[in-house]
Task: structure prediction
Amino acid sequence: MTESNGAPRGAGGGSMPDWEKRFRAPRVSLPDWAEDAPDRSLFVSNATGTYELYAWDRTTGEQRRATDRPNGTTDGLLSPDGEWIWWFSDKDGDEFGVWLRQPFGGGEDVPAVDGLEASYPAGLAIGRDGSTAVVGRSTDEDGTTIHVVRGGGAPQEIYRHRESAGVGDLSHDGTLIAIEHTEHGDAMHAALRVVRPDGTTVAELDDTKGGSQELGLEVLGFAPVDGDTRLLVGHQRRGRWEPMVWDVASGEETALALYLPGDVSAEWYPDGSALLVAHSFEARSDLWRYEFGSGALTHVETPPGTVSGATARPDGSVEYLWSSAAEPSVVRSTSGGVVLDPPGLKAPASVPVEDVWVEGPGGRIHALVQKPAGATGPLPTVFEVHGGPTWHDSDSFAAGPAAWVDHGYAVVRVNYRGSTGYGREWTDALKHRVGLIELEDVSAVREWAVSSGLADPDRLVLAGGSWGGYLTLLGVGTQPDAWAVGLAAVPVADYVTAYHDEMEALKALDRTLFGGTPEEVPDRFTASSPLTYVDEVKAPVYISAGVNDPRCPIRQIDNYVDRLVARGATHEVYRYDAGHGSLVVEERIKQVRLELDFAARHLS
Result:
């Protein structure tokens, strides 16, 4: 066994390489603006080398770092009146903590809610008066509870259940609260309940009842008008995510005739007369405006690529965070120009992504391929497997894949069964044989990559983080002759131990995926656990793990590593002081260096 120290060979002096510049270049998130003070915004940036929250006064142009913690901060919300910044304070990335707040202009951080002990967050909605809030929390002991806080008074509990739930939204006038819940036991498909601030039920919507299909719902937001009881809801009734309007007072449901392929989400324009529609299809996305009065659907012009977030401003303009595989992310506006352009180092471009469709055991699989400009195969190839699992790779900028391309590798990213964006059946298929069914799709694309001449069959790397890290360890165990190297970041390695140690919301997800607990369905957990196949692993394995990770906890990784040690298997482990990944730029660069060095040593 080798414990990495973060100083791989070749990491010394010289000019900074492009791949490192991409990580160091200042980045910003899409600014969140205060509903009743739209010139006040909150965004996340890594400008100081750590991702933190920043307050931005658009009138004066002043930008102020609102948080400053060694391991970074990203979870924050601006009150609708623009007076307060709420931010979640955990310990070194363990995601277990309390909400604090500070004045927008700066000042002391104080507990936002007195009387609520530390927990995992389960949603937050702040009233327009700035002093009313709906706070969701989750603990192993209580499951999910939701509380209403008024004017600094004691929090009043309005909801409690063992299964996972969360705060969806608070109506514009503060009289209605939308809750997403999974009381039926299916953590992948939520139902909705609307209650008053005293907890009494106003309306229910549950698409999991009355049929064989498993259909989910999600809260997209109340209409931004006082007294308006319309709630924008995402549904799966036609096999994919689409928006509809549900009047919670009358019960009327209004389907929207958008006729767009792929998944569709939406948010309200500030006056409530239209929707800003976000459309995702085959790893790209774009924006549209839907008019309630006429039913007209108008395209909002954005460059080809991926819109990672968008918001409609009071003047009718739209701000959006855009990137492509070749071009770094930028916050743009339809009114013209770049909204936020942080000073300093600029991220170098990378290469465009190519689309590949491969016939697989469950249907056509979409894969995204990048390779060095002008390179011809066969190339050493990294299969970078995304996390989630309910997520998908897209034509968007990612510094990690770009680093591999810079070092002469082809990169293949597979939107396997379980990925979003290809219909409900594709996403839900992973429940049949957890982990194994995704690897069938990765295997099919691997065979294409080799037979097409792209990939060198003797220099194939399986890599990924979180669920991608889990699939990496499962893959090198169940497909031991297919992979030359495995690189697993914050993975599930021993699924039974992971279940018992992870945060409560993930326990609920695992019960949904497997159909029960490890004690109730032991064979299913065994079949899908990397630990089951650890003695079959032939490839050198590199594992990185955050010691405070509540999602893929450290003990189950140690169990897997102990088995590698017992059989003298080639591996390296790097443990770092953070949670499910790091918000510190230097730490991220160190981890990429370690992975690049490990692959180079074992593929030569």
User: Anything to note?
Assistant: Residues 196 and 377 are 62 Å apart (CA to CA). The chain has a mean pLDDT of 95. DSSP finds ten helices and 37 strands in the chain.
